[in-house]
Design brief:
Keywords: Cell membrane, Membrane, Transferase, Transmembrane, Transmembrane helix. The protein has 348 residues and is mainly α. 72% of the residues lie in helices and 3% in strands. The protein has one domain. It is globular and about 55 Å long. It starts with a helix and ends with a helix.
Length: 348
């Protein structure tokens, strides 16, 4: 079976499982009162079930199990097998942390402690940033710095995706776009195992948009955002960061630039105003766009265009055929979106 067929199967199976299971998850959440009530910083006006991450997790895992059974992960070297297990079990760990928070409302300290422990386990399994490639210098081994840098990357991306999950369809769409770009880049970089995981996650995230795009019928909750954030970060490590080329090393950070920059800007803003970086407020990009007069949908679509733009830059930098064409096309889309945002903000 051609390798590309496995990636198509992974994408389609994940999407179908999500679309098939969401109605039952929604019924379960309503029946058991597992809903997110409006108020405070929250944009939604009615109680919403926040267990959609169960379907995202199930769709991704079932998809990967089917691909494994069909032979999609065959003939991997031992170190790659360990990395795949690290991504899989690490994703499970982060999903269950988020699900526990959705159900039991864990304290911030306990959440962070559990996240760090799971990230250390993933690092031990080989999901590790072991070196950086510096132009004119070459490969620089990180040695003992590998552990803290990897943990910061994994835990940071988990929370970055979680923090942008503030509007209908935002986190799912951004994650889906990023996963598709990682799929294409991983294939081009001859990293088929990482590409399979990216394909499954892309199918699950984009399938979830059927029920999560504005007006949303269900939220993914922390279980979904934690799982997607970790999986994206981990695929970036095993599929790109481990390739000894400067362009490959920087690609994950470029592909995920939107949530990274948003989280960094919010933390700096809170510190500058003398507030804790972990206390929620309305300093995120999507909050600022809403305050500027954009509608809910246009805000989400604008952030999609940003994500698509940085993703197309990653395609061009990776050297993918027609990557420059994609970058030019997405630049045109982003330019139009910026013009619309400017025009609406002037009218408000």
């Amino acid at each position: 079976m051609p390798a590309q067929i496995y990636h198509l199967i992974a994408f389609l199976v994940a999407a179908v499982v999500v679309l098939w299971t969401i109605p039952d998850v929604k019924k379960f959440g309503i029946k058991n009162g597992r809903v997110d009530k409006p108020g405070g910083r929250k944009i939604h006006q009615h109680p919403m079930v926040r267990l959609g991450g169960v379907s995202i997790f199930a769709g991704t895992i079932i998809s990967l199990l089917i691909v494994w059974w069909l032979g999609g992960f065959a003939n991997l070297p031992p170190e790659k097998e360990w990395q795949i297990w690290g991504v899989t079990f690490g994703g499970m760990g982060f999903f269950f942390i988020g699900l526990a928070d959705d159900l039991l409302n864990l304290s911030p300290f306990l959440r962070l402690l559990l996240q760090v422990l799971i990230a250390i386990g993933a690092w031990k399994a080989g999901v590790s940033i072991d070196f950086v490639t510096v132009p004119t210098i070459g490969i620089v081994n990180l040695y003992w710095l590998s552990l803290p840098i990897t943990v910061i990357w994994l835990v940071g991306m988990v929370n970055a995706i979680n923090w942008i999950d503030g509007l209908d369809g935002l986190a799912a769409g951004v994650s889906g776009i990023a996963a598709v770009v990682m799929l294409l880049v991983s294939l081009f970089m001859h990293q088929p195992a990482a590409a399979l995981i990216a394909a499954a996650l892309a199918g699950a995230a984009l399938g979830f948009l059927r029920y999560n795009f504005n007006p949303a019928q269900i939220f993914m909750g922390d279980g979904g955002s934690y799982f997607m954030g970790f999986t994206l970060a981990a695929v970036g490590v095993i599929g790109l960061v481990k390739i000894p080329a400067f362009t490959a090393v920087v690609l994950p950070y470029l592909i995920l630039a939107v949530p990274i920059v948003d989280m960094s800007a919010v933390i700096l803003s809170r510190l500058r105003h003398g507030k804790s970086p972990f206390i929620a407020d309305k300093r995120h990009l999507h909050h600022r766009l809403l305050q500027a007069g954009l509608s809910h949908r246009l805000t989400v679509l604008f952030i999609y265009s940003l994500t698509l733009w940085v993703g197309s830059l990653a395609l061009a930098i990776a050297g993918i055929p027609s990557g420059v064409t994609y970058a030019c096309a997405s630049t045109s889309v982003l330019s139009y979106a910026i013009w619309r945002v400017w025009k609406l903000s002037r009218q408000s």
